């Protein structure tokens, strides 16, 4: 499985997605512009992060198709209904 990393131009917002185009990534702000950064091959081991965190991330991606983090959203509760809530590190 490949995970695609995108960053929002002009902010610290990052996103992981299983969609190579990144079209499934929501806008965090009206000026959000997602730019492809790299692809991560999940079959390469050891993973660069904790295995438990990695499994949690894979479940999140399979369920929702994307994951947002390091976002400049001040209050994650204010995100529209249906958006995954940003998780703190």
Describe the protein's architecture and organization.
This protein is of the alpha+beta class and 89 residues long. It has one domain (2-78). The protein is built from one helix and four strands, in the order βββαβ. It has one helix spanning 51-64; strands spanning 2-8, 14-17, 34-41, 66-69. It has a four-stranded antiparallel beta sheet with strand order 3-1-2-4. β1 (2-8) and β2 (14-17) form a beta hairpin.
Regarding quaternary structure, what we see is single chain
Order of helices and strands: EEEHE
Instruction: Provide the domain count.
Output: 1
Class from helix and strand fractions: alpha+beta
Helix content: 10-25%
Number-wise, the strands total 4
> What's the average pLDDT?
78
Query: Could you tell me the radius of gyration in angstroms?
Result: 13 Å
Largest sheet: 4 strands, antiparallel
Uncertain regions spanning at least 5 consecutive residues:
none
Q: What portion of residues belong to β-strands? A: 25-35%
Name the strands of the widest sheet in spatial order: 3-1-2-4
Give the overall shape: globular
Distance between the termini: 23 Å
Q: Please, how many helices?
A: 1
């Amino acid at each position: 499985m490949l995970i695609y990393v995108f960053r929002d131009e002009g902010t610290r917002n990052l996103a992981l997605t299983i969609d190579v185009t990144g079209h499934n990534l929501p806008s965090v702000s009206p000026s959000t512009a997602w730019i492809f950064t790299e692809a991560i091959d999940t079959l390469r081991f050891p993973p660069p992060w904790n295995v438990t965190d990695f499994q949690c991330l894979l479940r999140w991606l399979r369920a929702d198709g994307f994951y947002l983090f390091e976002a400049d959203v001040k209050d994650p509760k204010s995100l529209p209904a249906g958006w995954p809530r940003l998780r703190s590190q």
